[in-house]
Design brief:
The complex is a heterodimer of chains A (about 325) and B (about 280).
Chain A lengths: L1 E3 L12 E2 L6 E3 L1 H54 L2 H6 L3 E2 L7 E2 L2 H32 L2 H15 L3 H19 L9 H24 L3 H8 L5 H12 L1 H17 L2 H6 L17 H12 L5 H31 L4
Antiparallel strand pairs in A: 1-3, 2-3, 4-5
Helix pairs in contact in A: 1-12, 3-6, 3-9, 4-6, 5-6, 6-9, 7-8, 9-12, 11-12
Chain B lengths: L1 H20 L5 E12 L2 E12 L3 E5 L6 H8 L9 E9 L2 E2 L7 H7 E4 L10 H11 L5 H14 L3 H4 L12 H13 L5 E5 L7 H14 L4 E5 L3 H7 L2 E6 L2 E7 H6 L4 H7 L5
Parallel strand pairs in B: 3-8, 3-9, 6-7, 7-8
Antiparallel strand pairs in B: 1-2, 1-4, 4-5, 9-10
Classes of the chains: A mainly alpha (about 325), B alpha/beta (about 280).
């Protein structure tokens, strides 16, 4: 409906807009919406297509994951048709390159991975949590605004850089104190992986702790709690599911870490729990074989799938465990 | 009609109180020339107030008049706001709370607080009440059990929760949560309880329960309550302070302030002409 309006009319009206400066006609906003709506009809087809496109992209990523797992399983089966599954999981000898009779017992690689991951966790969990508590409960806004981006930069450093940092800086430094330390060892890459995952724990835990409502801190302070008591007995428990999630994510990252151990860990599978000697982790073995030490179709070639599958099970179990723990300890507010 | 009945009831209550007051009550809080600034904003101006033992003191006034600021100053929670400055003195039991030697934790152990919105910890009902005694070093399970039961009974919520003490406090209704917060506060047996609009987030029935509770609690505690509900102040308090723009306009017996206010602004506010 057109609303007749005279320019310069004394009565002010809310409805109606002059399209042209000197026009004597005004148009109501509803009128213009009607006109535009006819053009909009094409957009309703877009509205219908968009969800289909989005669904398609979602399916692509799901299918990719399924494809990877399927390949892993199929090739692992091929491996187990050649090597007994019992030998693979119980034998303590890993000599795939043995010229006479290769021996495939994955345990030495698992031990290597566990040693490195354990050291990393021992380094990262206390430092990461302490940083998170400091940033969330004690630091001023200014300090937090400076430190958080620095942590996030640390998380973006390529792991090969960390690997050389371990080999050329940390190892020589440690040898000053531990003369028996070999050039390739478990300790140095373990510490450096710990440094690498610390920002992850700190940053994600800080997010979880900052999102605890202030009213809870006030409630605790009003009962005469000190700041430390508030942090450890109210805020940390309230954020525990987020904190555990961050730790598990970081530890999974340590288990799967490849470059640092490949560069600084060595390539000697070993059952020993000694931290000063050369090791090989599951990931480092896969790198070694992928670099061309074995031809396509050989047992060694298939063994990397079996090792990869073992690794996959490790991180899967970690994630399920994390979900269980965080559901068990969740404090809802 | 209802209002006149209400007034009569208040008068009767006040009449009883008068006799008790003859026993010469002790001063709990003596506020002397208190000024407070948020940065440049002068929020409290020359406040002088005496708060007596085992009484309910209500603080009323329009939004932004400084009533919440004042009650938070009494346990120094206001210091959590950055850029707060104070001058003057608040003596709690004769000792200036702004003294350097006065530990803020020590003060808050004596002066409990109930907040506007219920804020239980995301723990079980039991752990909520036991939190205060625990951080102050009481670890004996048997003693804690007794404290929890006594506090929950004191907050008139025991019967509703005794069968689910170990369930999460967030499963309770808003009104129950607020009474749980009162129980949490009672668990360390404070001397004074500060209540900052404790019923503003509650429904009328829960509000009534909290009001009845306040009447019970004043036998053992001194209570200071901020409220924007004038009927509430009239119903439950012995003395009322009217705050406006950071100043105390009038501070006297509740029945007097609601029947014959001496200041025109008080009269305008309580008759609903502004605010």
């Amino acid at each position: 409906m057109l609303v007749g309006g005279e320019q310069g009319a004394s009565a002010f009206r809310v409805k109606g807009v002059f399209i042209l400066q000197n026009s004597t006609k005004t148009f109501s906003v509803q009128e213009m919406i009607q006109v535009k709506k006819q053009k909009k009809n094409t957009s309703s087809t877009i509205e219908k297509i968009v969800p289909i496109l989005l669904l398609f992209t979602a399916i692509v990523s799901v299918l990719t994951t399924l494809g990877i797992v399927l390949t892993l399983i199929v090739e692992t089966f091929t491996f187990f048709s050649r090597v007994s599954i019992v030998e693979f999981f119980t034998s303590t000898k890993w000599y795939p390159f043995s010229p006479t009779q290769g021996s495939y017992g994955v345990l030495p690689l698992v031990v290597g991975t566990l040693k490195v991951t354990g050291i990393a966790a021992i380094v990262a969990i206390p430092i990461g949590l302490a940083t998170a508590i400091f940033l969330s409960e004690y630091a001023s806004d200014r300090t937090r605004r400076i430190i958080k981006p620095i942590l996030e930069v640390l998380a973006g450093i390529p792991t090969i850089v960390y690997g050389f940092f371990a080999l050329t800086f940390v190892t020589p430094l440690l040898r000053e104190f531990i003369p028996s330390l070999e050039i390739f060892n478990a300790l140095s890459p373990g510490i450096v992986i710990g440094i690498m995952i610390t920002p992850m724990i700190a940053s994600l835990s800080e997010d979880a702790m900052s999102s605890v409502p202030n009213s809870m801190r006030e409630g605790a302070l009003a009962l005469g709690s000190t700041k430390l008591e508030v942090s450890l007995k109210v805020v940390l428990p309230a954020a525990i599911s987020g904190v555990i999630a961050s730790v598990v994510l970081a530890v999974s990252r340590a288990i799967g870490e490849t470059m640092i151990v490949a560069v600084a860990g060595g390539s000697t599978p070993s059952m020993s729990w000694d931290l000063t000697s050369s090791i090989q982790t599951m990931t480092a073995y896969i790198v070694q074989v992928s670099q061309g030490d074995a031809g396509y179709g050989t047992t060694i070639y298939y063994s990397i799938y079996a090792v990869g599958f073992t690794l996959f099970v490790f991180t899967l179990v970690m994630n399920l465990f994390a979900q269980f723990i965080s559901r068990r300890f969740r404090e809802e507010y | 009609m209802n209002a006149t009945m209400e007034k009569q009831r208040v008068r009767i209550v006040q009449g009883e109180e008068k006799q008790v007051e003859m026993e010469n009550k002790n001063i709990v809080y003596k506020t002397d020339q208190l000024n407070l600034w948020y940065g440049e904003n002068h929020a409290l101006k020359n406040i002088n107030l005496d708060i007596y033992e085992n009484e309910v003191t209500a603080i009323i006034g329009p939004s932004g008049c400084g009533k919440s600021t004042y009650i938070k100053t009494l346990n120094r929670m206001i210091e959590l706001v950055p850029g707060v400055k104070t001058s003057g003195e608040i003596a709690y039991r004769g000792r200036n709370i702004f003294d350097r030697s006065y530990g803020v934790e020590e003060l808050r152990t004596k002066v409990g607080m109930v907040f506007q919105k219920p804020n239980p910890f995301p723990k079980s009902i039991y752990e909520n009440v036991a939190y205060g005694p625990k951080i102050h070093g009481i670890r004996d399970k048997k003693i804690l059990d007794q404290i929890v039961e006594k506090s929950l009974k004191g907050a008139a919520i025991w019967d509703e929760v005794k069968d689910r003490l170990h369930q999460n406090a967030y499963g309770l209704s808003g009104g129950q949560q607020q009474r749980l917060c009162i129980a949490r506060c009672l668990a360390i047996e404070p001397d004074v309880i500060l209540m900052d609009e404790p019923t503003s987030a509650l429904d009328p029935i829960s509000t009534l329960k909290v009001e009845e509770l306040v009447q019970e609690l004043k036998k053992e505690f001194s209570i200071i309550i901020v409220t924007h509900n004038m009927q509430q102040a009239a119903r439950i308090s012995d003395k009322t302070a009217f705050f406006l723009n950071g100043e105390v306009i009038e501070f006297t017996d509740t029945n007097k302030i609601f029947s014959t206010p001496s200041d025109k602004r008080t009269e305008d506010y309580i008759t609903g002409r502004f605010g």
